[in-house]
Structure formats: structure tokens, C-alpha cells
Design goal:
It is built from four helices and five strands, in the order βαβαααβββ. With 129 residues, it is an alpha/beta fold. Strands 1-2-3 form a three-stranded parallel β-sheet, with helices on one face. Helix 3 packs antiparallel against helix 4. It is elongated.
Length: 129
Amino acid sequence: MKRFDVIVVGAGDVGLGIAFKAVSAGLKVALIDKGKVGGTCVNYGCVPSKTLVHTADRIIETTENSKFGIRSEISDIDFRAIMTRTRDVVSSGRNSINEVIADSENLYFINSEGHFVDEHTHLRPPATK
């Protein structure tokens, strides 16, 4: 069984920050998350919502161009393309995080649910089927 100086549960913004800080201090770190790296912000919250808001802002600007003497109109809004772009931005962020994790010496990502043996003992490895 591998031994770690630090075990971080959760690969969201806070967990990643703690893990990278510990690695930069020379510690051997296990980062455990059963979901996608990036947590809620990258995958479901901040990143996708801000990407959609950015698109909505462009639409609003176009409709308000007449205030500046510019005649413009929106002939079509391709919602499928907007959602594809949003998913691509999220995927790109997640891929970047995965690359940094893979390139980090002394940082081991365990894509699984961890279980504590007791209050002071390392995580038990997931059961194999």
C-alpha cells in the first residue's frame, strides 16, 4: 500500500489548491475524488454559467447597438452550437486540470470513493471486482 503525507478528498477548487500547495512543499499527496476533477465550479457551476452569460451578453449588445448608431440584428440563435461551445469550455478546463495532475510528481489522483478505516488511519483502497 502506498503511503502519503497528505490525503485530500475532493478535486474541486479548494481540494486542488490544497493538493498543489502540499506538492509544492515537497509532500507526497493523494487526491481522491469519485467524480470529475474541477468540482462543481468547473463542471456544473461557475464555468458553464459564465460561458452562457458571456454569450447572452453578446446577444444583448447586438440588440442595443442602435444606441451607438449601429444597425444590427440577430437573424438566428443556434442554441445547439452555444451548448456545444459551453461543453467544450468545460471539457477543456477539466482536461487542463487532468494534465497538470498527470504531470505533477508526488501527486496521485485516485478516481474513486475513499473510506476511512478509523480516525487516524489512511484510506482503505477500493474493493476490486
